[in-house]
């Protein structure tokens, strides 16, 4: 049984994990950089340990410091949250080598799904549909030209070790292939230290649909429905909703069953998310995220299951406490990622928070570590809060979200709240008629100062 968890993360996700720990009667240990000494996740933890200077590579990515903190505090488990070390297979292995439970999947599964080429092959072998393209790594421009001709333009060149939209380039036609090929390989090498790339058919107007799964070590696997994450800027998600307004019940049941059987076939354990592009009624695998997702609250709101709690239980050896037939979905949920950045230029806006007021009321949830007087540091991701709203249907959810955004006060810095207020009032969004390129066009058409 797990009695003390070290949380190898910061900000709202560290608080989210702490809350689950407290409700389960488990002690929590916060780690923090010097810059985060006054952060809320540090203030509310049962114990806290400073692990280094402000830069992430010297603190939150410092594996030796984190393992030392776990050893010193006698923590028997580590939860990595998302980002940082959450999908680092070597770190997960290091944790287990020190007889500490890693709250997540096995290092082997993290490593497998971290290699996009290997992941694509693995899921295809267990029945998940994939995009047409190369069978594996593309090692020469000549090979790229041949595959592109077979696949048909436009094509997307992607980094095998990629993520976050880096190492990706579209070639619209043969004339643009060489430049796209060289760009993708160079960016992949710079971003990931690995220039391996592969090719997929480029879809012009797809949705980004992902399916949440939970699996234990006893052969039980369930899916918790889908999320629509199509509102993206530069391949970074901005707003997510569940269920997707683009799917009918037959489609969501079919993809849920496909994913469940595939996850069971590969022997996966813990929470995970399989991401798809969806166009013209067809699903195509993108990747599997072997961790808790930023947008997990929209799933929790519609199914009433605490994903962090289940991850902890599974890591402690317990079976899932429910079957697929026990899961009931209720209503609609939307999450807005609130970033410390200019809503028009998207330039980062760190600084000290003045007045702060979080919205409330029925069906409103705010996951954030902000408080009046807190200084948002410039060293980390700009997301400072998540506003999650739930209602009985999508229309009511939109009305509630509009009201909650109007109530949300974060003074002293610029935030993306005005961007969200604008996009949820756009007719296309209200009608659910958008794809992964829609937000870029919406932002480009915003009036200037």
Task: Give short descriptive properties of this protein.
D-amino Acid Aminotransferase, Chain A, domain 1; globular; 20 strands; 15 helices; 33% helix; 8-stranded antiparallel β-sheet; alpha+beta; single chain; Dna Ligase, domain 1; 5-stranded parallel β-sheet; 449 residues
How would you characterize the overall build of this protein?
The protein is α+β, with helices and mostly antiparallel strands. It has 3 domains: 4-103, Rossmann fold; 132-201, 2-Layer Sandwich (Dna Ligase, domain 1), CATH 3.30.1490.20; 207-444, ATP-grasp fold, B domain (D-amino Acid Aminotransferase, Chain A, domain 1), CATH 3.30.470. It is built from 15 helices and 20 strands. The protein has helices spanning 11-24, 40-43, 63-72, 89-97, 107-114, 116-125, 141-151, 177-192, 249-266, 296-303, 307-315, 394-407, 417-423, 427-430, 438-444, and strands at residues 4-7, 27-33, 47-52, 77-79, 101-102, 155-163, 166-171, 197-201, 207-215, 221-233, 236-242, 270-279, 282-289, 332-339, 351-352, 356-357, 364-368, 375-376, 383-391, 409-410. The strands form 5 sheets. An 8-stranded antiparallel beta sheet has the order 13-12-9-10-11-14-19-17, with helices on both faces. The protein has a 5-stranded parallel beta sheet with strand order 3-2-1-4-5. Strands 7-6-8 form a 3-stranded antiparallel beta sheet. Helix 2 (40-43) links the parallel strand 2 (27-33) and strand 3. Helix 4 packs antiparallel against helix 5 (107-114). The mean pLDDT is 96.
């Amino acid at each position: 049984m797990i009695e003390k968890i070290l949380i190898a993360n910061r900000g709202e996700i560290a608080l989210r994990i702490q809350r689950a720990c407290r409700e389960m009667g488990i002690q929590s240990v916060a780690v923090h950089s010097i810059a985060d000494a006054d952060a809320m996740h540090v203030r509310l933890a049962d114990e806290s340990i400073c692990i280094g200077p402000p830069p992430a590579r010297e603190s939150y990515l410092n594996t030796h410091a984190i393992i030392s903190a776990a050893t010193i505090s006698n923590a028997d488990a580590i939860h990595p949250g998302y980002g940082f070390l959450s999908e680092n297979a070597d770190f997960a292995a290091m944790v287990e080598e020190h007889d500490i439970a890693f709250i997540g999947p096995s290092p082997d599964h993290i490593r497998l799904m971290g290699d996009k080429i290997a992941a694509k092959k693995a899921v295809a072998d267990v029945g998940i549909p994939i995009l047409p393209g190369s069978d594996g790594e593309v090692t020469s421009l000549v090979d790229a030209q041949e595959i592109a001709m077979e696949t048909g333009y436009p094509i997307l060149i992607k980094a095998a070790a990629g993520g976050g939209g880096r190492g990706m380039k579209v070639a619209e036609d043969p004339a643009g292939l060489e430049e796209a090929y060289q760009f993708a390989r160079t960016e992949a090498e710079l971003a990931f230290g690995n220039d391996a790339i592969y090719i997929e058919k480029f879809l012009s107007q797809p949705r980004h649909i992902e399916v949440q799964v939970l699996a234990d070590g006893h052969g039980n696997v369930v899916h918790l429905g889908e999320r629509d994450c199509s509102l993206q800027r530069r391949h970074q998600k901005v707003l997510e909703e569940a269920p997707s307004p683009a799917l009918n019940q037959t489609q969501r049941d079919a993809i849920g069953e496909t994913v469940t059987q595939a996850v069971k076939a590969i022997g996966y354990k813990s929470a995970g998310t399989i991401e798809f592009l969806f166009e013209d009624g067809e699903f195509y695998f993108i990747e599997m995220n072997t961790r808790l997702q930023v947008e997990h609250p929209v799933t929790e709101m519609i199914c009433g299951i605490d994903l962090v709690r289940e991850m902890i239980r599974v890591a402690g050896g317990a079976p899932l406490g429910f079957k697929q037939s026990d899961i009931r979905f209720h209503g609609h949920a939307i999450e807005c990622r609130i970033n410390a950045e200019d809503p028009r230029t998207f330039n980062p806006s760190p600084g000290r928070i003045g007045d702060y007021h979080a919205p409330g009321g029925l069906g409103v949830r705010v996951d954030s570590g902000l408080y009046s007087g807190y200084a948002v540091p410039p060293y980390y991701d700009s997301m400072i809060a998540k506003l999650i709203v739930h209602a009985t249907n999508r229309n009511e959810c939109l009305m509630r979200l509009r009201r909650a955004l109007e109530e949300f006060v974060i003074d002293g810095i610029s935030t993306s709240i005005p961007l969200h207020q604008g996009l949820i009032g756009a007719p296309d969004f209200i009608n659910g008629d958008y794809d992964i390129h829609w937000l870029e066009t919406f932002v480009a058409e915003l009036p200037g100062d």
